[in-house]
Amino acid sequence: MNIQALLSEKVSQAMIAVGAPADCEPMVRQSARVQFGDYQANGIMAVAKKLGQQPRQLAEQVVQHLALDGIASKVEIAGPGFINIFLAPEWLAQQAESALASPRLDVTPVEAQTIVIDYSAPNVAKEMHVGHVRSTIIGDAAARTLEFLGHNVIRANHVGDWGTQFGMLIAYLEKQQREHHEAIALADLEAFYREAKKTYDEDEAFAERARGYVVKLQGGDEYCRTMWKKLVDITMTQNQTVYDRLNVTLTRKDVMGESLYNDMLPGIVADLKAKGLAVESEGATVVFLDEFKNKEGEPMGVIIQKKDGGYLYTTTDIACAKYRYEQLHADRVLYYIDSRQHQHLMQAWTIVRKAGYVPESVPLEHHMFGMMLGKDGRPFKTRSGGTIKLSDLLDEAVERATALVAEKNPDMDADELCKLANIVGIGAVKYADLSKSRTTDYIFDWDNMLAFEGNTAPYMQYAYTRVLSVFRKAGIDETAPLAGKIQLSDAREAQLAARLLQFEETITQVARDGTPHVMCAYLYDLAGLFSGFYEHCPILSAEDEAVRQSRLKLALLTARTLKQGLDTLGIETVERM
Ligand code: ARG
């Protein structure tokens, strides 16, 4: 049930009935305060202005035509012409009843789209670092959310698996294999890369060989391909361990690296030239874009092929967008990449649109995010100034969580403790990221994210176990259907029910904007409302059996909603903690 959509429909019908244009905006929003009802329609003023009418008078006419019988218990006009809608408890009870009866909380099925999500995208022969963590975590929440709604989600892990550095890496891998006479594990990718670079800079013969390998690799030489593939495999095997630890849904089959688009590049350059979009300039092939100006105020030149014939990151992203539309049949493409790459994407997509590779009807969306900062407000680094490895970060999270849960549960056995610490620790890192608006930088702070109070994973996970404990205490199996009917006699019950029924409009917003923090804020608020309800409306000790059943049902719907919401975020729950 999407209450906002339902009310919007009703209000706009009433507006049209009194002379508003067919495309009028009812602007129905959740009310900020209880005294303004559950929802407010704020669109009257703008329409009154257009029609040259007095807004309050228009509001009165709209209210007369508003068909909310059985849905609203009261409709009021406030201020200059706001319409406040108070939902009827009986109606809310009915809706809550059907949400509880439905395995997907009664969320309306969507018209399924094919949605490609570009996220994580680490680089080969480099360890994943904190810079990839936001893309991985937020992108995965988007994938889970859209999948829950019924879309066909294609996860595209655009790994950096191509470029001139591979000549050097192949030459170094070869050297290592020769010296160690065994298949090396590449345990420390960071060191491997560093050493390769050092050898390249110091050893001219090595550098020569490396340059030769670049050309050979690009020419499809079998030996170089095999060595290259080895590097990709080792890297992705290590990254998969991190994905699994993070409870991220990416697998090996989602890898669609830069190399996938190689064969398309010559054709793209030729086509852009034929279309008159690309021109030769100082030996390179360039697209000049009026939409972007350089420092001199002239159209910016975007290089798509270098003088030496090499292609660029932009050329690949042009091909990649084309591929996602033509081959993957994307209806929509989301890119979770940090905000510093915004200009790069805009240039690539401007060219994509001009060349007609992806029609305007298929949105290409940059869901950008800011940086992860340390407590000092500077880029998050190790004490010595190096980049922090993601695996080290996760180790620390679990270590800290272990101390925390052990203190709270002195009697818990070691196995359960270990499992719980993992869920809490990893959940904390993920939730801290997900709960902040993604467009801004965010401060990574262990104490905040592991706190049991506030909008944190431990708090949310704990809130869930608290709801479940009601059933445990009563010895009721929460998976079996409950008898009785939901009845909302207390204002707190009605408020909780209304909030529970806002799950669909929340998830719809997250799906549209790719903003998981909106889901976090909703769940946090829901947990707070449940607390208030729990304190003031006795569940198990309710005198009347019908009231007891009704409250149990509300508690159950709360548990399911919290769990489902956290699940779309990729945050695990436990039964007790
Ligand atoms: N591998 C790149 C990096 O680490 C991110 C790739 C993002 N995706 C894309 N289609 N450009 O910066």
From TrEMBL:
**Where found in the cell?**
Cytoplasm
One annotated GO molecular function is:
arginine-tRNA ligase activity
Q: Which reaction does it catalyse?
A: tRNA(Arg) + L-arginine + ATP = L-arginyl-tRNA(Arg) + AMP + diphosphate
- The enzyme's first-digit EC class, named in words, is ligase
Write out the entry's keywords from A to Z.
Answer: Aminoacyl-tRNA synthetase, ATP-binding, Cytoplasm, Ligase, Nucleotide-binding, Protein biosynthesis
Classification via Pfam families: Arg_tRNA_synt_N, DALR_1, tRNA-synt_1d
Superkingdom of the organism of origin: Bacteria
**What sequence ranges are listed for the domain DALR anticodon binding?**
460-577
Could you give the subunit structure recorded for this chain? Answer: Monomer.
**Family of the protein in this entry:** Belongs to the class-I aminoacyl-tRNA synthetase family.
Q: Return the protein name.
A: Arginine--tRNA ligase
Name the gene for this chain: argS
